[in-house]
Amino acid sequence: MGKLVKEEASARDTAELDQHQYLTFMLGGEIYAIGILCIKEIIEYGQLTVVPMMPGFVRGVINLRGAVVPVVDLSSRFGKASTGVTRRSCIVIVEAEGGEGRQDVGVLVDAVNEVLEIPAADIEPPPSFGARIRADFISGMGKVGGHFVIVLNVDRVLSVDEMSQLNQGNWSQGEPQAQEMPVAAAA
């Protein structure tokens, strides 16, 4: 019985430790972080298949072991210029909450740094103004070595429902829609 209690305590301690671990990455010269529990894997940037009529921040899709995974350019999602692809560019596969459950989404980043442990006491609430991205995208500001790391709220940044609504909204704002090809009359 004592062994079972120790295993449960160990599992609980591991879960608590994981909640304070973050994958840090570079994007446009700034350091961002995502909770390690949301990260599924990191892959090198490869060939993307462009999907017509998607929002500008969706770079395309990849085939990940038979599953179609959309790849989001975080820089574009934040309203900045598109991320340029370099040798260090990679795609972080993240599990985000959507209206139909959890979904894998790829995130294009400039470079992955490391996994850091940031205690909850060292994470400040997100700023109400002055941030270069939407405040609801920020979970908090982690203090690491005298610098701030922007901790992202993955479910807000990668909200599949919101991205879908943005895409539908583009068509109502006068952007071109797919048009039917005229059918040639039979001779």
For the largest sheet, list the strands in their spatial order. 8-1-2-11-10-9
Query: Span from first to last CA?
Result: 85 Å
Strand elements, count: 11
Order of helices and strands: HEEEEEHEEEEEEHH
- The CATH first-level class comes to Mainly Beta
Q: How big is the Rg?
A: 20 Å
Low-confidence stretches: 4-18, 169-187
Name the CATH homologous superfamily. CheA-289, Domain 4
General description of the model:
The chain is α+β, with helices and mostly antiparallel strands. It has four helices and eleven strands, in the order αβββββαββββββαα. It has a single domain (22-169), classed as CheA-289, Domain 4 (OB fold (Dihydrolipoamide Acetyltransferase, E2P)). The strands form two sheets. A six-stranded mixed sheet has the order 8-1-2-11-10-9. It has a five-stranded mixed sheet with strand order 3-6-7-5-4. The longest helix has 17 residues, at 2-18. The model is unreliable at 4-18 and 169-187 (pLDDT under 50). The radius of gyration is 20 Å and the shape is globular. It has helices at 2-18, 74-77, 154-157, 160-172, and strands at 21-27, 30-35, 39-44, 58-64, 67-73, 90-98, 101-109, 111-117, 123-124, 138-144, 147-152.
